[in-house]
Amino acid sequence: MGWKREPEGTTNTVTGDVSGTVAQAQKIEGGVGNTTMHNATTVTHNTVVQQERGLPTALQGLPPLVGEFVGREEQLHELLDFLDPARTAGGTSGSGAVVVSAVAGMGGIGKTALAVRAAHQAWEQGWFSGYLFVDLHGYTPGTDPLTGTAALDALLRQTGADLEEMPPDTAERAVFYRSALADLAGADEQRRPVLVVADNAHRADQVRPLLPGPGGHRLLVTSREALALDGHSPVRLDTLDPDDAVELLRSRLGADDARRGEEGLGKLASRCGYLPLALKIAAALLARKTRLDPARLAVRLGELAKFADDEHDLAAVFNASLGYLAPRELEVFALLGSAPGTDISTPAVAFMVDSEVEDAEEVLEELAAAHLITSPAPGRWAMHDLVAAHARTLTPPTTDSDAPEDENGPGGTGGPADPRELALDRVLDFYTVVADAADDHLRALRGDTPPALFPGREEALGWLDVEIDNLLACVRIARQTHRTRVATRLPQCLSIYLRLRRRFIEAIEVHTLASETALQAGDTGGEASAWNNLGNALHQVRRFDEAIDAHTRAREAFHQTDDSHHEAQAWNNLGNALAEVRRFTEAIGAHTRARDLYQQAGDARGEASAWNNLGTALQEVRRFDEAIDAHTRDLSYCQQVGDAHSEAQAWNNLGLALRQ
């Protein structure tokens, strides 16, 4: 069989301005596609879509060392013993001899800090040729835990492996992953193995596909619970010793700070339950408030604990720190707890809290100084999952007297709109508008002028690479909260990207969510687009019968809306799926129908694709003269529209037909 033309989707439009060397949205106009974005026509604050960091590579996959590290010498030594490739101790798995260490302990106990510290010391020792890191998000509020397949995907992208060769099946992808690790080691002059760190696991099935196989590689896992992994070596973390807890508090105080020697530090450490997360927040508060007495803070925590049932009085520590925030800082903190995804950029925060980027950045710096958020990379911000869970319990204070009113108000009675819901609307709109602009760059053809939110295609692709997990989370939360427009539109904006990056599992998920949402909303056009994109994703993972059903539903729905152009796309895609299961007669009929509809629409490029796929199907049933005619017509149209890549396919397929 010859080359079939790529599956087809739909196009998007957005407008904006750019200034300087960064992509800059002076004003996002008109919304996305045929919908109107919430507040999009009034967004005029000079918001920068930052040029985000690129994807981590195998040599720089570890998070940086952040903050103080006190105590844990015994556990650190134990981990380093396991990580040392010169040692043979460790577990075994069905994939071969490996060393798997699992750090377990309650939330906020310092598991990630210990694992990252050990990994960095291993790097200093030169033990490994590559360092890979993946956060499995086992307990992140509002975010689904990563599946084993998604975790493999994240790690493989760090290895630099050829993603075009990456299989969609989990078992096959695990084999591909182990081969990639072997290739990394083989390319190293010293043939050193690779260290993989899987943080925040919730279930063993998230981890099992990540077992790296033979070759001296190591897998280091953190989890709140003991995982059922064969042969692994557990490292259990408990709260800090009292002396270490006090030392952690002292570490944030200046050398000449008189409070370093106060007995109140011991009382404060005890009130924090010797839990590192609570201690760091308390220490940050002492560092910011130079007149705050540790003993008095301990008393205050005791008073707050009477109203909290949180383990180790974490809620009391959180609330004590929040009590010293300015109203705007407290508002932003409360709203950040509901941000989709696992981290967030400064521009996204600015849109979410409806402020200038500079003002948002100033507030974020204050929250970071209070140890309520962290900055995992320049211009990006994250919350510990326990802090985020607490933020979600807060009612954001209203600092804007001109806050809009909900049309129906709470309980349908009229009144101020919920600030958390408004913030979620704004940040979802931000992600959708910018993703739409990035998508236009991926779809742009020769002579097109994509929107200037990004300088070019590579910058658009880089933004999507960094934000994709957040974008997927936006789709899920939009579906859960009945935000129909975002739940149907955003998956369409991601369809080309997900195909380019071969993230077919996620594509199937979001397009399924989009089809369900559109059906419930009675949006036949949105449902048609979702079915078409879903069919394309199913085709890529060789679930052809389901793809046929999806494309059939798509072309029926497009027909109902009198959208003959997109109906043509659905027919064309349906024909390709039918050909995969050798239903060539039906495929010929589908491509013929697509050709006719493209002709009616005056779409020469689409007609060329239909002629190409029709010719390929005709070859399969040995109708070679008709196939030669089809490929000749395809070639003519490709030359007419200047599509050199498709023209090359046309020449190849024509040659195959002539050879017969």
UniProtKB/TrEMBL annotation:
Gene3D superfamilies: P-loop containing nucleotide triphosphate hydrolases, Tetratricopeptide repeat domain
Superkingdom as given in the UniProt entry: Bacteria
Annotated protein name in UniProt: Tetratricopeptide (TPR) repeat
Residue span of region Disordered: 394-419
Domain Orc1-like AAA ATPase: 68-206
PANTHER family: HTH-TYPE TRANSCRIPTIONAL REGULATOR RV0890C-RELATED, REGULATOR-RELATED
InterPro entries with a match to the protein in the record: AAA_16, P-loop_NTPase, TPR-like_helical_dom_sf, TPR_rpt
